[in-house]
């Protein structure tokens, strides 16, 4: 489920956005708190739609929230 | 712990009690050679009834309107568990087709009770496989994956 190639800054962004809780972010993104926890710890790779929703919750683009560390094409 | 995890734990409990019940009946019928009476069965029957009521407890009201019951991750976990259970069914059906070979009697007859044991055994094992796969994917932990 998780991917070592996909990183994220969700935890840092939560604290930078008024110390948003995981539950608050989950409510904004339309998922459960467990899913946010799994994404933050790298144990779950969100779908493209969920990645966009999380980024929108912070008012940022997907690239500013998630990072890809794979080989360059 | 979410509903899917709770359901998986309840399913494991019911499957284990089912195994215990059939083990008890087998011992009574074929080892002790006596028919189990109601007084022998009622403790297990009581536990069954309690476990049947458990799903009602699981269907609690939402704590908030925004609370999501199942999201994409939950659906993916359930889908993988269903696939694992489906594979288990095929493996068990193949294994079950070999069992009559070992229990056939001298006149070539297969005991009727064996079919019940095989069918219920497959059901119980598939339920266990589904529940274990669900819990393994969630991480066995009950406290929201931490």
Structural features:
heterodimer; A: 73 residues; mainly alpha; two-stranded antiparallel ribbon; 5 helices; 8% strand; globular; B: 146 residues; flat
Summarize the structure.
The complex is a heterodimer of chains A (73) and B (146). With 73 residues, chain A is mostly helical.
Q: What features would you describe in this structure?
A:
The complex is a heterodimer of chains A (73) and B (146). Chain A has 73 residues and is mainly alpha-helical. Helices cover 52% and strands 8% of the residues of chain A. Chain A has helices at residues 10-16, 22-29, 33-40, 48-58, 62-65, and strands at residues 6-8, 66-68. Chain A has a two-stranded antiparallel ribbon with strand order 1-2. The longest helix of chain A has 11 residues, at 48-58. Chain B is mainly α and 146 residues long. Chain B is 75% helix and 0% strand. Chain B contains 4 helices and no strands. Chain B is flat. The N and C termini of chain B lie close together (10 Å). The A-B interface holds A 1, 26-27, 30-35, 37-38, 43-44, 46-47, 50 and B 2, 64, 66-68, 70-74, 76, 137-139, 144-146.
């Amino acid at each position: 489920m998780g991917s070592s190639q996909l990183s994220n800054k969700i935890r840092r962004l939560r604290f930078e956005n008024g110390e948003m809780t995981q539950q608050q972010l989950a409510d904004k993104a339309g998922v459960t708190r467990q899913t946010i926890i799994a994404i933050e710890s790298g144990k779950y790779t969100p779908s493209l739609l969920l990645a966009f929703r999380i980024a929108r919750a912070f008012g940022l683009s997907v690239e500013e929230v998630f990072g890809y560390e794979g080989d360059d094409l | 712990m979410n509903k899917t995890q709770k359901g998986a734990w309840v399913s494991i409990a019911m499957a284990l009690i089912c195994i215990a019940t059939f083990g008890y009946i087998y011992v009574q019928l074929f080892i002790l050679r006596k028919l189990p009476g109601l007084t022998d069965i009622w403790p297990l029957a009581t536990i069954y009834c309690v476990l049947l009521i458990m799903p009602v407890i699981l269907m609690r009201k939402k704590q908030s309107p925004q609370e999501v019951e199942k999201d994409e991750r939950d659906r993916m976990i359930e889908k993988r568990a269903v696939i694992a259970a489906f594979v288990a069914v095929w493996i068990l059906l193949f294994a079950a087709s070999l069992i009559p070979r070992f229990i056939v009697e001298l006149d070539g007859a297969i005991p009727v009770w064996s079919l019940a044991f095989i069918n219920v055994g497959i059901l119980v094992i598939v339920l266990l496989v589904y529940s274990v796969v669900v819990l393994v994917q969630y991480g066995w932990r009950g406290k929201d994956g931490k």
